[in-house]
Amino acid sequence: MSVPYVKVHQSGAKKEIEKLKAAGELLNHYRIRREGEWVLIPVKHSDSTGDFEENVDSKMAHVGSFERIADFFVIKEREGWEKILEELKEKQSPRAIFLDNGVEGSFRIRKLKRIDGTGKPSGIHKENGFRYVVDLEKAYFSPRLAGLRREITESVQNSKSDGLIVDMYSGIGPISIPLLKGNSRVLSIDINPEAIRLLSQNTKLNKVRGWAMVANSNEIFECLKGTDQVIMNNPTQPLSVSQNIINKLREGTLIHLTHISNRRDDVVFEGVDVLQSKIVHGYSPSSNLNYFRMRKK
Questions:
Q1: Is 287 exposed, middle or buried (CB count within 10 Å of its CB: 0-12, 13-18, 19+)?
Q2: pLDDT surpasses 70 at 62
Q3: Which residues contact 54 (CB under 8 A, 6 or more apart)?
Q4: Which of the four, 37, 81, 141, 218, has the lowest number of CB atoms within 10 Å?
Q5: 165-183 pLDDT, tens digit each
Q6: Range of the domain at 90
């Protein structure tokens, strides 16, 4: 895994490791490695990053029960979360740990409580080769969908369309920004002003430029009929709302849509050719997160 590190000569490595340990900067759960006369030490903060192996005794028994975001962790509040907390404190050396009791409001802000460490649920998170300023008190973000976001990005790029792409629920930009890096023309929209503010920071951080606006995509989309592709990454949105938007798209528009459905129900869209349909992962004991790539008839 890619983590920050410092590089010191072997003659001073022992002293430097003790110094980093005393300062709380040493990442104990990764193996220190050598390159000739140099020693590479995994730390919490550094401008240099590299790949390091996890120590065998640091591997988590509760993988999938928490999220690692920037330099902090989030645990979903449910039965047994206290055991996850203790394991994280023992094996991961986090800056802070937060308990997540769900999301609220149209902006989907997480209800978080800090249960260990210091500071706020914010920082710079690395995903798919990009860096994002994250602030969970102001805008929703989850690293669980990194693979899906990469797949959507690649699918859009492989279409080889040079028309306008609309990222209807862009959040802080983890789909828009990789597309902009690939020289796509992207309009990013989000109902949350703070999400767009963070997206603006992230475009600068990743050295890309695009268009962004604060708006409710579900109310203004009739004004955007000329787009070539739309990204509808809002999986909790009712199917009827998504279908209403699809009905207003022009023929030939490519649609990339995520949706959470009951495992026993078939998801059916009208007026489209489904080019790809897949289950991303289980969302709950009774539901799945699905991804659809479709073309409007």
A1: middle
A2: no
A3: 1, 29, 30, 31
A4: 37
A5: 999 999 999 999 999 999 9
A6: 60-120
Which among 132, 137, 162, 133 is positioned nearest to 149, based on CA atoms? 132
Number of helices and strands (H, E) in the chain? 7, 17
Is 190 part of a structural domain of the chain?
yes
Q: What is the pLDDT of residue 64?
A: 54
Task: Read off the tokens for 2.
Answer: 């890619």
Closest CA to 284 of 259, 258, 257, 262: 262
* Residue 135 pLDDT: 98
Instruction: Tell me, yes or no, whether 29 and 9 share the same domain.
Output: yes
Mean pLDDT across the chain: 90
> What is the domain count for the chain?
3
Question: In this structure, are residues 69 and 123 in contact, taking their beta carbons and an 8 Å threshold?
Answer: yes
Residue 265: predicted pLDDT: 84
Are 31 and 69 part of one and the same domain?
Answer: no
Angle, alpha carbons 253-255-261 (nearest 5°): 150
Q: Quote the pTM value.
A: 0.78
Asked if residue 133 belongs to a domain, the reply is no
Q: Give Cβ neighbours of residue 39 (< 8 Å, ≥ 6 apart).
A: 7, 8, 9, 10, 13, 16, 32, 33
In a domain, 97, yes or no: yes
3-state secondary structure of 293: strand
Rounded to whole angstroms, how far apart are CA atoms 149 and 168? 14
Asked if residue 170 lies in contact with residue 199, where contact means CB atoms within 8 angstroms, the answer is: yes
Q: What amino acid occupies position 224?
A: L
55 occurs within a structural domain: no
- Work out the pLDDT band at 59, boundaries 50, 70, 90: low
Same domain, 110 and 89: yes
Query: Within 13 Å, how many C-alpha atoms sit on residue 2's CB side?
Result: 12
User: What is the C-alpha to C-alpha distance for residues 100 and 84, in angstroms, rounded to an integer?
Assistant: 13
CATH code, 44: 3.30.70.2580
